[in-house]
Inverse folding.
């Protein structure tokens, strides 16, 4: 599959009064053409910082100390501000988290949607407005023709997010970055926005990076998933592999803390403890202090990525051949069993080969 | 919109009436009378004068007489300034005062907005520090100090501008600058704070994500949104200017109205006090109305009631 975006060894630090925060610590991932990659992780894990570095929209006190972001043969980290401006909103565009604040309150929405066309194209203003109207219709703003001159405050939250999406796709970007686009919306609207994004992806053939902390949303939209913790990707694989055959104890914790229909106990599971302070990131696996399966080595040395399948990798010492076999939590075990059954029934294509501890 | 403005004008008239009433009675509470301080006049003469101007009547009756006069457009006759009608006194002297007032507020706000915006964009750089320094200076030094300094260096020493002479635009430059310092400083501080906030907002990030250059982002999105709260302070600043202009007019010998106001109060010149108070109130109310209308133009969320109905 063709890679459209290839991020390698990304390291981003923030200068603060307290010292240097090592926000992104050697993150590598790629985005295939036409797929949706979900990046999941709790707040502060570095999801947003990672994608903002792709857009060149990092805060002033952030600096990229290492790495490369390859987009169509060009390293975005070495691009000039001018070059980045011509890519932003044109080849790569972004959907922001809060639709209530991401539209300019003093500009009619038609003009806001047409703006990227006018910045990047030689389109006449009239043509751009006509196109903006089409796109607004496409994202589901009813009666778009008569609403072009309306202002953001005249729309509901869900409608505003549709407008923000319209702005992001108006130039048919090759990469669409969605930074928690459903977090600020209520659940029914969330589902509508997810459906809309899936539909648009088919129509305009774009690749999507979807950032979220909501695993329920991931299952609905992603092809592949990368799990981030404390500024690192700790596990990545296809959506089925992550949901049914997770390997990293942190992924187990995440999945366990997601309510399912057969969650029987009345208390929802929460991962104990808090994420580490990235002013002084731990030497070993950052999750170790919260990990009931942690071994001595977890505190001392950073685990490398272990291959589970061709598409599935996890950075945990548990996958090391020398590691003792451990039983994952019951709910995870159940998921793995379901997975094997689905594979056996041929409902899932990829099979898990050589997983270090499948309990088989 | 038309309906809204009509309603506002109605309120303006009511407000002016209340101000006229309050001022009238407060003024009568002031110690002294227009003639009591003139030792040369005999009691007889004063009595005759009082009778002539109706000052011997009960206060309430005087009030009614004044109001009836007002309704006929008669502001009365000044006791002090050569017995001129107050309306003539005002109309012959309002020109220079208005000119430097309007010039100062335009110069002050426009420069203040620019300075504040630049300081915000270059936040924490030397530009910001310099702008902040001048803003504090402009805010804390009274305008008559500026007036004297400008007069001394630019008019007296360098002879670029005329000293204490009212002769067309060139003589209005120094007083305008002196008066503009305070609004400039206030606007700049306000604008900077607002702009820093706006530049941190999500829609500015979205504007950058669309591919706008930093300057395009400011011009298209940040400026207008930062202006909304800045407009609020234009009203109070206009009042400051009116009051402040009295001293500055004195320093530059401008035949304006501020000087007259001070004199009329110290000499218990009732009709002049009333006329000028009403004039200042009227100007202030108009400024507030203009600010409210400007709001609607700049911020669609506060479109005035007339427009709202159509949605």
């Amino acid at each position: 599959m063709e890679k459209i975006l290839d991020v390698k060894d990304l390291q981003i630090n923030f200068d603060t009064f307290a010292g240097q925060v090592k926000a992104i610590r050697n993150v590598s991932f790629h985005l295939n053409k036409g797929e949706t990659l979900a990046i999941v992780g709790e707040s502060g894990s570095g999801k947003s910082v990672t994608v903002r570095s792709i857009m060149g929209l990092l805060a002033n006190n952030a600096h990229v100390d290492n790495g490369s972001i390859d987009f169509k043969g060009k390293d975005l980290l070495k691009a000039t501000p001018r070059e980045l401006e011509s890519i932003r909103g044109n080849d790569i565009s972004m959907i922001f988290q809060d639709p209530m604040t991401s539209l300019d309150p003093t500009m009619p929405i038609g003009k806001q949607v047409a703006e990227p066309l006018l910045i990047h194209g030689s389109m006449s203003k009239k043509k751009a407005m006509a196109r903006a109207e089409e796109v607004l219709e496409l994202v589901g703003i009813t009666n778009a023709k008569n609403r072009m001159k309306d202002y953001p405050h005249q729309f509901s939250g869900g409608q505003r997010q549709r407008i923000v999406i319209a702005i992001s796709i108006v130039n048919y970007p090759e990469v669409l970055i969605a930074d928690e686009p459903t977090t600020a919306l209520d659940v029914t609207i969330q589902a509508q926005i997810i459906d809309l994004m899936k539909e648009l992806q088919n129509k305009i053939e774009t690749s999507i990076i979807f950032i979220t902390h909501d695993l329920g949303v991931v299952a609905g939209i992603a092809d592949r998933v990368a799990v981030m913790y404390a500024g690192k990707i700790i596990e990545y694989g296809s959506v089925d592999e992550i949901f049914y055959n997770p390997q990293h104890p942190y992924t187990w914790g995440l999945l366990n803390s997601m309510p399912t229909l057969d969650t029987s106990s009345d208390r929802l599971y929460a991962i104990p403890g808090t994420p580490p302070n990235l002013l002084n990131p731990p030497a070993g696996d950052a999750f170790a202090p919260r990990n009931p399966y942690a071994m001595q080595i977890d505190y001392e040395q950073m685990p490398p990525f272990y291959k589970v399948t061709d598409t599935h990798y996890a950075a945990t010492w548990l996958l090391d051949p020398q590691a003792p076999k451990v039983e994952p939590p019951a709910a995870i075990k159940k998921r793995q069993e379901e997975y094997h059954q689905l594979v056996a029934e041929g409902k899932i294509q990829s099979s898990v080969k050589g997983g270090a501890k499948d309990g088989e | 919109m038309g309906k809204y403005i009509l309603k506002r004008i109605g309120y303006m008239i009511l407000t002016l009436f209340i101000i006229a009433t309050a001022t009238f009675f407060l003024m009568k509470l002031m110690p002294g009378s227009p003639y009591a301080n003139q030792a040369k006049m005999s009691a007889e003469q004063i009595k005759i004068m009082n009778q002539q101007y109706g000052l011997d009547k009960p206060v309430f009756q005087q009030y009614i007489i004044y109001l009836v006069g007002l309704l006929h457009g008669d502001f009365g006759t000044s006791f002090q300034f050569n017995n001129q009608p107050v309306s003539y006194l005002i109309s012959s002297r309002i020109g220079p005062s208005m000119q430097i007032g309007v010039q100062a507020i335009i110069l002050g706000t426009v420069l203040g907005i620019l300075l504040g915006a630049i300081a915000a964009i270059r936040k924490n750089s030397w530009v910001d520090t310099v702008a902040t320094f001048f803003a504090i200076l402009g805010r804390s030094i009274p305008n008559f100090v500026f007036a004297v300094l400008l007069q001394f260096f630019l008019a007296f020493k360098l002879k670029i501008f005329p000293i204490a002479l009212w002769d067309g635009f060139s003589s209005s430059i120094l007083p305008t600058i002196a008066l503009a310092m305070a609004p400039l400083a206030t606007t700049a501080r306000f604008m900077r704070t607002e702009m820093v906030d706006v530049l941190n907002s999500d829609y500015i990030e979205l504007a950058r994500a669309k591919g706008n250059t930093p300057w395009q982002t400011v011009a298209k999105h940040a400026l207008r949104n930062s202006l909304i709260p800045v407009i609020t302070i234009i009203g109070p600043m206009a009042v400051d200017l009116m009051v402040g202009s009295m001293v500055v007019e004195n320093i530059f010998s401008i035949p304006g109205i501020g000087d007259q106001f001070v004199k009329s109060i110290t000499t218990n010149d009732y009709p002049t006090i009333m006329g000028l108070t009403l004039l200042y109130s009227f100007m202030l109310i108009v400024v507030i109305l203009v600010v409210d209308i400007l709001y609607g133009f700049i911020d669609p969320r506060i479109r005035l009631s007339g427009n709202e109905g159509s949605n």
About this structure: Chain B is about 75% helix and 0% strand. Residues 115 and 188 of chain B are 6 Å apart (CA to CA). Residues 92-270 of chain B form a domain with the MetI-like fold fold (CATH 1.10.3720.10).
